[in-house]
Amino acid sequence: MNSPYQPLPTFDEVLLCTPQTTSEQVELFLRRCLSPISREEKIYTMLYADELSYDVSSRAEELFQCLQHYNNMYRLVILCNCNREHSHILSVFSQYKVHMIPQRPLAEIQRYLQDHYRVTQPLSSAASVFKDNMCVGIVSSKRAGVGK
């Protein structure tokens, strides 16, 4: 987010992990991230990596150890739930752990996201449902299962 014109991550830069994420999906993601051919300045991100099963995490560890020797200039961010910091994949990558504090004010981050998620022609768009014609919205509740 060095520039307000810098694009959001593309689909190949993000892996949203769930307990159903397969080792093949993680392998494809890590190969894209650690490929020595890729010299683009992409930042690859695994979201909710703590959700991965033990088997998938173990396979990811083996592959990472193998592939990182071919490319030491990779950019990989692994985000997880702080309440599940003892999951296998996080213990594997704990030596690389960096506590992150946002370097930009919250208002600036929100403005950047609003600029990228606002629909300019909301005539027949579902974005008209959300505030300020955003194509993304977060619906939350303090009570679970009340019709979100």
UniProtKB/TrEMBL annotation:
- A biological process (GO) annotation for this entry? ubiquitin-dependent protein catabolic process
State the GO CC annotations.
Answer: cytosol; membrane; nucleolus
| Keywords recorded for this protein, A-Z | Ligase
InterPro entries named in the record: RNF213
Gene Ontology molecular function? ATP hydrolysis activity; ligase activity; ubiquitin-protein transferase activity
Answer yes or no on keyword Hydrolase.
no
Which PANTHER family does its entry note? E3 UBIQUITIN-PROTEIN LIGASE RNF213, RZ-TYPE DOMAIN-CONTAINING PROTEIN
| Protein name, entry field | RN213 ligase
